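Fig. S4 source data, part A: sequence.
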Amino acid sequence: ELQQKVEETELLKMELQMLETERVRLSLVEEKLMDVLQLLQQLRDLNISKRALGKILLSTLESCRDPQPGKAHLFEVLDTLYHELTACELFQSQSLEKAQSRQSLSNPLVISC
C-alpha cells in the first residue's frame, strides 16, 4: 500500500510538472498574441490597406507552412507575424517621421516666433 502511494505521488508530481510547463507555454503564446494585436491596432490607426495587411498575413503563413521541429507551431506563426508586422513600411516611415520631428525640435539653431 505504501508503494502504491509512492507511485501515485510520483505520477501526480509528473502531472503537475507537465501542467506547469503547459501554463508557461500558454503564457508565452498569450503575451505574443497581445503584442500582435497591439501592432494590428496601431496599423489600423495608421490606415493600412487591406491589401497590404493581406500580403503580410499571406507572407507569414507561407513562411510557417512547414513547422520547425521542436518549436510550437502556434507560437512560431505568432512570432513570425509579429516580425512581419514590425517590418511594415508604415511603422518604418512613422519612426522616421518621429525621429525627424525630434531632431528639428532639439536643433539649437531653430528660432521659434
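Fig. S4 source data, part B ends here. DSSP finds four helices and no strands in the chain.
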